[in-house]
């Protein structure tokens, strides 16, 4: 028997389903989308995966090695669905609104630091093939993927990059990739649409064994010593952003796939 309330719920469900379907027109898709947003927070006994992800993004959960097994599907749906892109868009939009609101003197010394992996370029095609957290990180197969130089841009970051350049802010790429991957990184950046940069800093052997925070903040300090002004700094890891000097403002992109300390 159809009660008025049942009919209403039924209609509401239809509307929700329609809204979800129409939300899949994401431009510049970086990987085939999965038909789930990943934003629902599949509640499993003892842990909500969306709470785990919030804990990770807020840097309350640190030094983790693997995505909790129960949350692998959740993270996969999040990364390949629309929520990751929407979250990235908020970060990039806020970054541009901030930069655009500054009254910068265009003396050629204003720079913006971009991390590369999961910031400038996306390794989502690799992780989609190898699974989200099912196995420990395999440096050999990951480096094989990097050496192909085919990583697409994270579209939200590419848009931010172009808009910052139009404000006269120069890009500095500061990456944990090592010097022997310079050539392929240059090729990949250009292929993905990044054509101008002030510097591309890769990790040399003097930093081997040092933390990412030490490596990256040391280079930021050197850049300031040379007279550059770090207007902003964007990365997917907290280790891209912590350690002085940080830059005038920092912007954290989502990354529930891995943790680099
Ligand atoms: C921007 O800076 C210039 C010189 O530094 C100043 O003359 C101008 O009034 C400033 N504009 C705003 C909107 O603050
Ligand atoms: C890591 O990847 C390489 C290259 O694909 C493969 O030969 C190797 O077996 C992998 N190692 C593990 C532990 O899975
Ligand atoms: C950046 O921070 C420095 C040091 O606090 C400050 O002097 C400078 O005005 C800031 N620049 C901008 C663009 O906010
Ligand atoms: Mg990164």
Automatic annotation (TrEMBL):
UniProt entry keywords in alphabetical sequence: Glycoprotein, Signal, Storage protein
CDD domains referenced in this protein's UniProt entry, alphabetically: HAD_VSP
Residue runs in coiled coils: none
Highest rank taxon of the organism: Eukaryota
KW Signal (keyword) present: yes
One Pfam assignment: Acid_phosphat_B
Cleavable signal peptide: 1-19
SUPFAM superfamilies: HAD-like
Molecular function via GO: acid phosphatase activity; nutrient reservoir activity
Keyword Signal: yes
Function: May function as somatic storage protein during early seedling development.
Stated family: Belongs to the APS1/VSP family.
Protein name per Swiss-Prot or TrEMBL: Acid phosphatase 1-like
């Amino acid at each position: 028997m159809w009660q008025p309330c049942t009919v209403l719920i039924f209609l509401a469900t239809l509307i929700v389903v329609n809204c979800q379907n129409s939300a899949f027109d994401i431009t510049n898709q970086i990987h085939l989308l999965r038909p789930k947003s990943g934003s629902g927070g599949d509640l499993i006994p003892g842990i909500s995966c969306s709470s785990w992800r919030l804990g990770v993004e807020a840097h309350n959960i640190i030094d983790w090695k693997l995505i909790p097994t129960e949350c692998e599907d959740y993270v996969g749906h999040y990364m390949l669905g629309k929520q990751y892109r929407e979250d990235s868009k908020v970060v990039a939009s806020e970054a541009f609104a901030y930069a655009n609101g500054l009254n910068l003197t265009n003396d050629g010394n204003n720079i913006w630091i971009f991390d590369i992996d999961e910031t400038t370029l996306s390794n989502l095609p690799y992780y989609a093939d190898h699974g989200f957290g099912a196995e420990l990180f395999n440096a050999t197969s990951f480096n094989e993927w990097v050496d192909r130089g085919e990583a697409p841009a994270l579209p939200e970051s590419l848009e931010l990059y172009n808009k910052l350049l139009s404000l006269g802010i120069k890009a500095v790429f500061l990456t944990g990739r090592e010097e022997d991957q310079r050539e392929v990184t240059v090729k990949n950046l250009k292929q993905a649409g990044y054509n101008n940069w002030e510097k591309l800093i890769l990790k040399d052997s003097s930093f081997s064994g040092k933390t990412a925070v030490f490596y990256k903040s040391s280079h930021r300090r050197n850049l300031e010593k040379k007279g550059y002004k770090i207007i902003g700094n964007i990365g997917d890891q907290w280790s891209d952003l912590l350690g002085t000097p940080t830059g005038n403002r920092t912007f954290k992109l989502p990354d529930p796939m891995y943790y680099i300390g």
